[in-house]
Write a structure and sequence with these properties.
heterotetramer, A mainly alpha, B mainly alpha, C mainly beta, D alpha+beta, A: mainly alpha, Cytochrome C Oxidase, Chain A, 16 helices, D: alpha+beta, Helix Hairpins, Immunoglobulin-like, 2 domains, five-stranded mixed sheet, 10 strands
Chain lengths: ~600, ~220, ~240, ~220
């Protein structure tokens, strides 16, 4: 039932698109764009996983031919044995695909696009066409990066951080076209992300339904708003740096070329000035969605809503002044190291506040363990480990030992995999009915959860010990070093568990695909949640609401004494509620 | 429900109070924030590279032609003024004067890009490349006889072409956008006193590009 | 139709003649240039290479290995000098297709041979018989540079597309490992051996510029005119500096 | 198997391990509190029919506590770390009598230059280009003058807890005092290309006498 949205907003009067192309490919509907981002980034998530498995094979069984390695070209893995230059491509592209083309689009591309208009009560994004352009730039960036895997000399190989001069000089890295394609793809992705962010910010500021005041917005929208601001201000710096790198690689400029006065540290400063806000872009949306899911699962209002909002803002603001903690050992001035250490120590505090608030939400709650709630609680449990292991690195003397070792790899996987990816598994299961009108299977969801949770910890926790022993990052063959030989059984154990972890993701993939067609039909409000999006049918029609709804309360009024059910939707008008004051602009509502 | 006659220059309705600006204006301000960060990256790198340069920097005016660029700067400032006139015209509902002043602005912008392009070809002809100084060119002799510092000419070329190149690109985008508005919106009378949001947004963008050029002109050409 | 057939046969005959004539293959036909590379001055002392870090390579030597930049033979002649025809070949000359690939062996953390030549398009099979990690970086200018690694015993084929004298090869893991390859469109080249002598044979008649290239002492050229199956001698002398 | 930090072979090692252990205790405590609390909540407050959750929007006093406590702990950690950081990497932290050794990092090997008897680098009695072998006298401060020829490398000796990037175009110093005679591994900690994993050097801590003997032999060019 498609209803014509009847207000005078720009571009909402037209009918729902009918043709296949306008409806699914070149659609300006924020929900379709969200789903397009979903399929694109799930593909890249799978690709990143496959690259990781090849890395784990080489680390677990150095020099042995990889089963199925025969399909790889002779220049990369003769007879299935991975070569060092192919290994550092795997390292680089695993990091690049996962960070830029899987987790970031999944969190920001999918859920900002899908949730913001639905949760704020808007017809669509402020600029639907720019929103479509943002997807197609991300798609182009993804295809360019994908193509760089198959170019003759192979893909980029200077780590996802692409430190110059290794990334800038093909004679030193061994790859010319692959490195240039990396830079081009990142510039395109930067553009896509800027267009997306400006859309989300404008929609959140100006297009909230009447009554949806700033402090009645759900925390997921708050975190997406702050993430959009981080993205808006950080991505241009990365695009600028990638452009300078591209110029160094193509027309021979000298930005990062030491003999001609260029400074390799300039790249590190630019990259990490973007890099740290980027890692908060990768975690804040997950924190927001987890707050929504935990409140829903505990049937209890979020504990300390205002302090959660201020914690997000504090994380975002502090995120801009800590980038130097990635460069303690890089030859940067040590006194700078001290100031970055203090700001890094301070940034641990908002994370602690959020963690305790999640626990406060569950305290004396009525915990209902549907699959999203399990993932959300696992997020809190794993993010705590990731956050705590971050403190070891903030202490600069300790960082001297564990910088660029597997301790860092353990930390980043605990916050990115244990954090963002668990939250994403939960969020995809939670909003799947709103996207596709069907429920994902609860049984298979739980099986997938437990397998992933167990194997995930078996893979990444021992990496802390590898790091403490001094195992450097991005090492093709650890058995070259006498002090790493006793650790080789650990590496093999981690690799085996990694294969099992990867295998158990098949359950999620099958559950996701089969439920598209044979999943149980979704009721109107499957999770009994208060959000505006659950007042719409599943899946939601083009233009969302015919009449913009009015909002009477915050999003977390669970177990409210005013009603006997344990949830109270934001749009439900109780006798005691006043009609929200609407901006008078002379136009009939 | 027909389209309301009320002015579209207000934020969308019905909505909770946000910023007192229509979506396009708010969107342009947010976009300009990201552009500020982009140029901060480029100019910041220029500053760091120049202060950390292994030798002293080339004197102003030796390589770059200051008089022509000064005129070019004046031209861009004038086109900013004509943009304000265009905006003032349409806010009083005067579509004819909007057409005139917008055309003046487009021509001003196009001339700026033209002069910049001419400057580039002239510089490249004299041997000034993004990678430094071409051997056997006129500038190579200046480097040889010491008027130009050999150690930093590589950086001098890289930073100059990156910053002014990208600024030129942004000016070109502005000219194209204004030409598009002129041909497909202004000439078809789409803008009225009730709705001139497009002009307001492009005007914001144009003033931003002009402001960036003033900063660039000072730090690249004059010091 | 018949007229075409006759013309066709005649054309093929002509072509075969041309190919036979210009191919001039076979060492026995054609002129030969031989000579020795004399060396005057003090014989430079080559630094010892410390291979203690790679026991596999170290075990392959009794006396500690030394660098191979300058190899002066017992009889006062210079080895590893690349002598080749630089100019003078008739324009119509067409090189025969390269037959067997040239093998560059990495044995005992050293390149064997240290200086060698091959035809454009001929396969260079790079062999790692040490079983430990080497990487091979070819810093060509006309040829596209490449940088490949061989973590254990394996052979990697590569070809060079452009004529270039010389393309330096190096291993970055072992800084002392250096080699030079001369890529030429014709087979008229030789490398002076342990007796300092070289022999270029199968030359069609003509006046040729011969160049002798040495890693450290640079190049020397000479002009030689040969006719029929004549054997000419052309010596070069490099002075130590 | 090795589950803990490597052997302590320099004066930094006990200090750094000390801070590491302190942080481990603090984070271990926080870990037990949070994970234990989560597990306890999961069982204690699981859904039971007819029961409604406790309707509360938060507790400002609790917020103050779990803001102040982490803040105090973090600032404390920050100050202690800063003290050791200045001692290890501070601007004038290198002892004046440190024995200078030049480390020339290049793609895929380390070349060390020893100052020779006059203990000063850059003099003609230096022993240059010793490949992948760092010999240091025990108990004396040693300063590595790091430079790189091509890309960014990073000197990393786990036993000394010493790590310092070598950046092309920059002269960077890293100092330590070895305390335990023995042979240790040194690797490159910054991705520097396909041979990054092969940049393996041997670090040998010797008594002063053995060190001088080795240095004399190295001067003659036969390095063992």
């Amino acid at each position: 039932m498609t209803t014509v949205a009847a207000t005078h907003d720009v571009g909402h009067g037209e009918h729902a698109p009918s043709g296949f192309w306008r409806k699914y490919i070149f659609s300006t509907d924020h929900k379709t764009i969200g789903i397009q981002f979903l399929f694109l980034s799930l593909f890249f998530l799978l690709l990143g996983g496959i690259l990781a498995m090849q890395m784990r094979w080489q680390l677990g069984f150095p020099g042995k031919p990889m089963p199925g390695g025969g399909i790889l070209p002779e220049s990369m893995a003769p007879g299935g044995v991975i070569l060092p230059e192919y290994y550092i491509q795997l390292v680089t592209m695993h990091g690049t695909f996962m960070v830029f083309f899987a987790i970031m689009p999944l969190l920001v591309g999918v859920f900002a696009n899908f949730l913001i208009p639905l949760k704020l009560g808007a017809h669509d994004m402020a600029f639907p066409r720019i929103n479509m352009a943002s997807f197609w730039f991300a798609f182009a960036a993804g295809m360019v990066m994908l193509a760089s895997l198959f170019v003759p000399e192979g893909a980029a190989r200077a780590g996802w951080t692409m430190y110059a001069p290794l990334s800038a000089r093909p004679d030193l890295s061994g790859a010319e076209l692959g490195q240039k394609l990396w830079s081009v793809s990142i510039v395109l992705l930067g553009l896509s992300s800027i267009l997306g962010s400006l859309n989300y910010i404008t929609t959140i500021i100006n297009n909230r339904a009447p009554g949806m005041t700033w402090f009645r917005m759900p925390l997921s929208v708050w975190s997406l708003f702050i993430t959009a601001i981080l993205g808006l201000l950080a991505l241009p710096v990365l695009s600028g740096a990638a452009i300078m790198l591209l110029f160094d690689q193509t027309i021979g400029t000298h930005f990062f070329d030491p003999p001609a006065g260029g400074q390799p540290l300039l790249w590190q400063h630019l990259f990490w000035f973007f890099g740290h806000p980027e890692v908060y872009i990768l975690i804040l949306p997950a924190m927001g969605m987890v707050s929504d899911i935990i409140a829903n699962g505990s049937r209890k209002p979020i504990f300390g809503y205002h302090s959660m909002v201020f914690a997000i803002i504090a994380i975002a603001f502090l995120g801009w002044i800590v980038w130097g903690h990635h460069m303690f050992m890089s030859g940067m001035n040590p006194t700078l190291g001290s100031s970055f250490m203090i700001s890094t120590m301070v940034i641990a505090v908002p994370s602690a506040i959020k963690t305790f608030n999640w626990m406060g939400t569950m305290w004396r709650g009525n915990l209902r363990f549907h699959v999203p709630m399990m993932h959300a609680v696992a997020f809190v449990a794993m993010f705590v480990i990731g956050g705590l292991s971050g403190i070891f690195m903030a202490a600069t003397p300790v960082d001297m030992h564990i910088h660029d070792t597997y301790f860092i790899v353990a930390h980043l996987h605990y916050v990115l995999f244990g954090g963002s990816l668990f939250a994403l598994f939960g969020a995809i299961t939670y909003w799947y009915p709103k996207m596709f009108g069907r429920m994902m299977s609860e049984r298979w969801g739980k099986i997938h959860f437990w397998l992933t949770f167990v194997f995930y910890n078996l893979v990444f926790f021992p990496m802390h010990n590898l790091g403490m022993a001094g195992h450097m990052r991005r090492i093709y063959d650890p058995t070259q070093y006498d002090f790493l030989k006793p650790l080789q059984p650990l590496n093999t154990f981690i690799s085996v568990c990694a294969f099992l972890l990867f295998a158990s993701q098949a359950i999620f993939a099958l559950n996701f695909i089969i439920s598209l067609f044979r999943g149980q039909k979704a009721p109107q409000n499957p999770w009994l949640d208060n959000g505006l999006e659950w007042t719409l049918p599943n899946p939601a029609p083009h233009g969302n609401w015919a009449q913009i709804p009015s909002v009477y309360r915050g999003p977390y009024e669970f177990s409210s004494p005013e009603v006997e059910e344990d949830y109270l939707p934001q749009t439900r008008k109780l006798p005691t509620d006043r009609e929200p004051a609407v901006l008078s602009s002379g136009a009939p509502s | 429900m027909t389209h309301a006659t009320a002015s579209l220059m207000r934020p969308p309705f019905p909505a909770e109070r946000g910023v007192d600006a229509h979506n396009l204006k708010l969107g342009m301000w947010v976009f300009l924030a990201s552009e500020v960060m982009f140029f901060t990256a480029l100019i910041g790198s220029y500053v760091i590279l120049r202060f950390g340069a292994p030798g002293e920097w080339a004197k102003p005016g030796v390589v770059l032609n200051i008089p022509v660029t000064a005129f070019n700067t004046f031209l861009l400032i004038c086109s900013s003024v004509s943009m304000v006139k265009a905006f003032a015209a349409i806010s009083d509902g005067d579509q004819k004067m909007l057409k005139v002043w917008l055309l003046v602005t487009i021509i001003g912008g196009a001339m700026f890009v033209g002069i910049q392009a001419y400057e580039y070809t002239h510089l490249i002809h004299r041997g000034f490349l993004p990678s430094g100084v071409r051997e056997g060119s006129e500038l190579a002799e200046l480097v040889a006889n010491g008027t130009l510092p050999a150690a930093t000419m590589g950086l001098y070329g890289s930073t100059f072409y990156a910053m002014t190149g990208f600024h030129g690109f942004h000016v070109t985008c502005g000219v194209v956008a204004m030409a598009y508005l002129y041909l497909f919106r202004v000439r078809r009378g789409k803008y009225s006193q009730q709705d001139y949001r497009g002009i307001e947004a492009v005007g914001l963008y144009w003033h931003f590009v002009d402001l960036v050029w003033i900063i660039l002109f000072t730090i690249v050409y004059l010091i | 139709m018949r007229k075409v057939g006759v013309a066709g046969a005649f054309a093929v005959g002509l072509m075969a003649l041309a190919v036979a004539g210009s191919g001039w293959n076979g060492a026995q036909a054609g002129a030969t240039i031989t000579g020795t590379i004399k060396f005057t001055g003090a014989k430079p002392v080559m630094a010892k290479i410390d291979m203690s870090d790679e026991p596999v390579c170290k075990a392959k030597y009794q006396a500690p290995p030394t660098k191979e930049d300058v190899v002066v033979n017992g009889n006062g002649t210079l080895a590893n000098v690349f002598v080749y025809v630089k100019a003078g070949l008739p324009a119509t000359y067409k090189a025969p297709a390269a037959a067997a690939p040239v093998v560059l062996d990495q044995d005992g953390c050293r390149y064997h041979p240290h200086v060698f030549g091959l035809l454009v398009g001929q396969t260079l099979s790079i062999k790692n018989s040490d079983g430990i990690a080497h990487n091979i970086k070819a810093k060509g200018v006309k040829n596209r540079p490449f940088n490949i690694s061989q973590p254990n015993t394996m052979t990697t084929p590569r070809t060079f597309t452009a004529s270039e004298v010389m393309v330096p090869l190096e291993c970055n893991v072992h800084g002392w490992m250096k080699a030079s390859v001369g890529v030429l469109p014709h087979p008229f080249f030789a490398v002076s051996g342990t007796d300092g002598s070289f022999k270029i044979s199968g030359l069609p008649p003509g006046t040729y510029t011969i160049e002798a290239w040495h890693e450290r002492y640079g190049v020397q050229t000479a002009t030689v005119t040969v006719a029929g199956a004549q054997a000419k001698t052309q010596d070069f002398t490099f002075a130590a500096h | 198997m090795q589950w803990w930090l490597p052997v302590q072979a320099s004066t930094f090692a006990p200090q750094i391990d000390g801070i590491f252990t302190a942080i481990l205790i603090i984070t271990g405590l926080a870990f037990v509190v949070v994970e234990g609390g989560l597990i306890w909540f999961i069982f204690k407050y699981r859904e039971r029919p007819g029961r409604k959750a406790f309707y509360t929007h938060g507790n400002v006093k609790a917020e103050y506590i779990w803001t102040a406590v982490p803040a105090v702990v973090m600032v404390g950690l920050g100050l202690t770390s800063n003290h050791y950081w200045n001692e290890i990497k501070g601007r004038n932290s290198v002892p004046p009598n440190a024995y200078p050794i030049k480390v020339h990092a290049k793609q895929f090997e380390w070349l060390f230059t020893y100052p020779g008897p006059d203990r000063r680098l850059g003099t003609d009695d230096d022993i240059t280009e010793v490949r992948n072998k760092l010999h240091v006298p025990v108990g004396q401060p040693v300063v590595l003058e790091e430079e790189s020829e091509d890309v960014i490398h990073s000197v990393f000796v786990p036993a000394f807890r010493v790590k310092q990037d070598a950046v092309p175009g920059m002269q960077i110093r890293a100092w330590f005092i070895p305390t335990l005679i023995g042979e240790y591994d040194m690797g490159c900690a910054e991705l520097c290309g396909m041979g990054h994993y092969k940049m393996h050097a041997k670090v040998t801590v010797q008594s002063q006498a053995d060190f001088d003997a080795w240095l004399a032999k190295a001067a003659q060019g036969d390095i063992e």
